[in-house]
């Protein structure tokens, strides 16, 4: 199997790192404008596409083109705006989201709708013209499925997390497509890692704010307490166990060194440890620790992956 070009790996990794940073921001500041990890990264990968390696010893310096980064701002902002429009009535019922501008009545729904549509359309078209069609199509598919499939399902079934994980894992594919113009088998282990990562990450959030979700009639967790506990335990332990296996898939291609294998194993086992701690105690503090572990895990794993390729 041919070697993965650094710029492709860097674009895919950087897109996924932004997801983790966005998730951290959303968890820490839920009252601010809501842009989910998926939404933010959908076009950030294109902004990061214009990166090149500047050789300094063995280290590569990332440089970013602000022109290409602007389409990331457009699509991410548009999707966040539309998400607030769709969920405005339910956001008003949750303490953690009641202060959002639309939920609090500081903005008119019609104006928000048209503004969000304009941002999303302009950003998607700009991505197609400035980068490539494949990246634009992947980004548009993620945005549409997030807004019109995953978002409504949150009020209907706890399986919404499974459905949302498919568009949620799109960022590395978009980054890969933006940097290479195509998708090949080497991109899919990155997709699988992000797919599995989302389950313990979101279960931690769902448990921390379960009363808020219940108040707004979201079905992100089963209603019966015993069913809820079993569901959360499965949604945390099974994906975390699978993540240990999947995180080694890139190494099987022969593209990564012992550094990546060791780093991946340490990170995955550590992540599993915090998942186990939550399953044992099911406390809010354990959920916060699991959330923090998820936010640390993802960018660190991709940093190790990039470092192993330098």
Please state roughly what percent of the residues sit in beta strands, choosing from under 5%, 5-15%, 15-25%, 25-35%, 35-45% or over 45%: under 5%
Low-confidence stretches: 23-68
How far apart the termini lie comes to 18 Å
Number of helices: 14
- Gyration radius over CA: 19 Å
How do the SSEs run, as a string of H and E?
HHEEHHHHHHHHHHHH
> Mean pLDDT score, rounded?
78
Find the structural class using helix and strand composition.
mainly alpha
Number of strands: 2
How many domain units?
Answer: 1
Query: Order of strands in the sheet with the most strands?
Result: 1-2
Helix content: over 70%
Note the overall shape. flat
Keywords:
310 residues; mainly alpha; flat
Description:
The structure is a single chain. This protein is an all-alpha fold and 310 residues long. It has one domain (6-309). 72% of the residues lie in helices and 2% in strands. It is built from 14 helices and 2 strands. Strand 1 (54-56) and strand 2 (59-61) form a beta hairpin. Helix 3 (66-86) packs antiparallel against helix 5.
In short:
This protein is mainly alpha-helical.
Layout of SSEs?
Elements: H1 6-28, H2 37-47, E1 54-56, E2 59-61, H3 66-86, H4 88-91, H5 109-130, H6 133-153, H7 160-168, H8 171-180, H9 188-208, H10 210-215, H11 225-246, H12 249-252, H13 258-281, H14 284-309
Antiparallel strand pairs: 1-2
Helix pairs in contact: 1-2, 1-8, 1-14, 2-3, 2-6, 2-8, 3-5, 5-6, 6-7, 6-8, 7-9, 9-11, 9-14, 11-13, 13-14
